[in-house]
Amino acid sequence: MFDPFEILGLPRSFFLDMKVLEKRYFEEQKKVHPDRFALEESAEKARALRSSTHLNQAYLLLKDPLQRAGYLLKAASIHPLSHDPETLTKVMDWNERLEEGDNVSQELAKEEDFLFNELEDAFKSNEYEKANIALYRITYVKKLLKDVYAKAKGRGAI
Amino acid sequence: MTFGEKMTKTILLQLVEPGQTPNPHTNPPGIVVGIDLGTTHSVLAAVLEGKPRVLEIEGEGPLVPSTLKASTTGLKVGETQGDILSSTKRLMGRGPEDPICSQFPHLVAGQGVRLKLADYGLTPVEVASHILSHLREKAEKFFELPVEAAVITVPAYFDEAARIATKQASALAGIKVLRLINEPTAAALAYGLEKGIGGVYAVYDFGGGTFDLSLLKLEGGVFQVLGTGGDLNLGGDDIDHALADFLKTKDIRRARFLKEKLTDHDSFDGVIREDLEAIVTPFITKTLRITDEVLRNAELTPRDVEGVVLVGGMTRMPMVRREVEAFFKKTPLSDIDPDQAVALGAALSAHGLQYGSDILLLDVTPLSLGLETMGGLVEKIIPRNTPLPALASQEFTTYQDGQGGMVIHVVQGEREFVQDCRSLARFELKGLPSLPAGAARVRVDFAVDAEGLLTVSAFEKTTGLFQHVEVHPTYGLDQKALSEMILESQKHGKEDILKRLQVEEGRKENVQPPSDR
């Protein structure tokens, strides 16, 4: 199975120093990138292309805390949440206010921060079920924030 | 590595067929050059004695006008007077319905994009191939050796079709492309930014035909593109047209001349710089809006940017410099000639790819790649600014009972509807098993290589039906015509190289013509 931590030679943990991740990523790309094999046989080039692509996929996954969390939860055999009434109520409320023209972006950003802290705490104490809920809620808040931005852009406010 | 007279002779003995070099780091196999195939000018450079240099032939300047003129002896590159084709780079990979076509009076109505010059009917790819051939000859004259391979630069914002068109032009010109690299990355290379303190740099590239803004992160010899944005229809040419409109003239060349004069004159021939600046303002505002957007997408602010590099002829304009400086609150770097920086960087890249280097360029997709789904909507498979090489897959299903085929329509762009995006290719996956709607499982893979070239494969999971297509532009040359033309040019190209090599004294036995072109 695709293991981004293994590909980058990093310990499997939610807590990842972005500087270390980047350093490892650059070191590995310097070894496997197709440009290093510009004059080699095509089999060699194809291998380089594959390794370099996997490395990019692993890097992108680990760079994003939400994808990283999702991967760790999946690896721990936790199924993604499909339904959460509390989130649903909140999201409907925000959506309504967004329709009415309320500026909810600050509130959403605050909620995102709060949930992110919850996610971190959950991983700190290895409470995967709790992490799973936090991850589910952040995903919704992020989507709402994106809608807010798109709307503001549509109005020409940004 | 030095590249003196002595080395040149050694290299001649070591000429190896492309693809047969066992180790790229020991045997330097030939002359490699960097080419900036620009909208208004093209520039040729190579690494000489360890340093990148723009190659100049006696009697010619460093910049070769990207023009084509018909003469009694055939087509001539670099002429600036009379009936000439110019700025055709802007047509690379475009279709006849593209609004940009209205800027080209030589365009012939009818089949695809074809330009009429005397008795010739030329596609933009053919024009580019003539320019590239001219540059190749120039390099061969300079080194008295055949050109083995080249790095050719393209605007970061060039789409798939335009990149493929550039590769087709190189193939026609008998040039093996080591790699297409993006112009801003090449400029950053030329500045040797990787030797500095590292950090995020912005490359503001305002050229004759296009504007690009790229953010690059530099660390330990790695140039990582964080994001790029631009406009393929925003360049000095558009300002020439706007200025010509203002002056109520149809003489675009005169408008360009005036624009250039007003760079270091406050007024010229009755036109004052303020008039020009008023015309230019909306264009600059547009470039800064794009800049802001690219920064925002990368979650950065102007303050996070360590330095700004200016590239492209338009950045000579004092007003452009002023506005860029005000935006970033930093004096931009401009000590390398903005017309030459890209070619110099391309030469460094070519040299590095051929002989090995500690520098690595990590590019991104400039535009999102996706598929058409029900209702003319676009499903993005690889979002823009994804690091390359990239691979992504998506599963699709049938919407009718017993549906026997599925059309895979590949598009590029940021918009939600297919009609607003660029159509790249369309193919049909046939022979699907007869299943109820929604039961067939078709997986579509998008693979983009390190240069940004896309391959799409489709795979029906229950039967194992597999289809693999290289994505070719819908416009430009079709594959059959291209292969025929390459075959022709190879035939003559080989003869020419052989002839030239036989003239080289006393080395005939040791030399084989490159055959892989």
Summarize the structure.
The complex is a heterodimer of chains A (158) and B (517). Chain A is built from 7 helices and no strands. Chain A has helices at residues 4-7, 18-32, 42-63, 65-75, 85-99, 105-124, 128-155.
Structure description:
The complex is a heterodimer of chains A (158) and B (517). Chain A is an all-alpha fold. Chain A has 2 domains: 60 residues, DnaJ domain (Helix Hairpins, Orthogonal Bundle); 71 residues, Monooxygenase (Up-down Bundle). Chain A is globular and about 60 Å long. Chain B has 517 residues and is α+β, with helices and mostly antiparallel strands. Chain B has 3 domains: 245 residues, ATPase, nucleotide binding domain (Nucleotidyltransferase, domain 5, 2-Layer Sandwich), CATH 3.30.420.40; 130 residues, Nucleotidyltransferase, domain 5 (2-Layer Sandwich), CATH 3.30.420; 102 residues, Substrate Binding Domain Of DNAk, Chain A, domain 1. Chain B is 29% helix and 29% strand. In chain B, the strands form 7 sheets. In chain B, strands 1, 2, 3, 4, 11 and 12 form a 6-stranded mixed beta sheet that branches. A 5-stranded mixed beta sheet of chain B has the order 18-13-14-15-19, sandwiched between helices. In chain B, a hairpin with a 4-residue loop joins strand 26 and strand 27. In chain B, helix 2 crosses helix 3, helix 5 crosses helix 6 and helix 5 runs antiparallel to helix 7. The longest helix of chain B is centred in the middle third of the chain and has 25 residues. The N terminus and C terminus of chain B are likely disordered. The interface between A and B is medium-sized, with 22 and 27 residues.
